[in-house]
Design goal:
5-stranded parallel sheet; alpha/beta; 11 strands; about 280 residues
Length: about 280
């Protein structure tokens, strides 16, 4: 029995798990509560629901496919003492919206494969803590980054680095000032660095042509990005705006990086982010 909203860790299970593996976890819910924790998009049909207790079955022949995760929010593994993790903290762009469903083509997926391919970084895990519609300051979907920092970053075993890509939903919602976004990042920096984590800030990506875009938003985005590049509060800055913007119109994504909604990236766009 798990109290609502509480983080529980299961008993350990002894088996080998290679990096990059697909892992199937089967659970039986004796009595589903009225409130259910979950993640509304698994980027493909990755969840299968069937009535009855089938935890020991090899297949679920009468199951219904779903694109939302429920209950399970992470898998912890035993690793060498030198192993560590980078936390990718953000919104739907980190969550991978716009990528090919079911193919693991989010930018954190590409980053994980890049790290695995290098013997010097193969012991670094990648934790995707992106939530679609999420904000930094207030509003949006789910707890804002400022509120979920303890749970989604500081409570993660082995976390050593944090990459933050957020702010477009704050700007697009029209209720958050650039100064509030800046204060959010300053506060996150203080807390992460006090805990010994290295903090990488990313510039806010362009969204020209999207439902969010207007001239006022663009002016605010440029103001925030100028501060990110020059403030000096980050251990490093990842200028993804410069990587994926259209050179002929910097307010828009490159055509090959655009998923088509002019806000989220394509598979190629996410690959470009990880390679940069």
């Amino acid at each position: 029995v798990i109290p609502y909203g509480t983080l529980f860790v299961s008993d350990p299970v002894d088996f080998d798990l290679k990096p990059g593996s697909d892992l199937a976890v089967t659970m039986h819910i004796a009595k589903a509560p009225k409130k259910t924790t979950g993640h509304r998009s698994a980027r493909g049909e990755a969840v299968f629901i069937q009535s009855g207790n089938a935890v020991s079955e090899k297949s679920l022949p009468t199951s219904v496919a779903n694109t939302c995760w429920y209950y399970l929010c992470g898998v912890e593994v035993l690793a060498n003492h030198s192993a560590a993790a980078v936390v990718c903290l953000g919104d739907s762009i980190t969550d991978g919206k716009g990528s090919t469903e079911g193919q693991n083509r989010r930018w954190p997926d590409y980053l994980a494969r890049r790290l695995q391919a290098n013997t010097e970084t193969a012991a670094i895990g990648v934790l995707n803590q992106g939530i679609g519609g999420n904000c930094l300051w207030s509003g949006g979907i789910g707890q804002p980054v400022m509120q979920r920092l303890d749970r989604d970053v500081l409570a993660q075993p082995g976390a050593r680095w944090v990459i933050l890509l957020a702010g477009i939903n704050d700007l697009g919602g029209g209720r958050t000032a650039p100064e509030e976004i800046i204060i959010s990042m300053e506060q996150i920096a203080v807390r992460l660095q006090a805990c010994g984590l290295r903090f990488y800030g990313s510039t806010v990506l362009p969204c020209g042509g999207s439902f969010y875009y207007n001239n006022e938003l663009e002016a605010k985005r440029l103001k925030v990005n100028d501060w990110i590049r020059t403030s000096g509060i980050f251990d490093a800055v990842i200028d993804w705006d410069a990587v994926v913007c259209d050179p002929t119109d910097p307010s828009r994504l490159r055509p090959e990086a655009d998923s088509g909604d002019h806000l989220h990236l394509s598979d190629e766009g996410y690959r470009m982010m990880a390679e940069a």
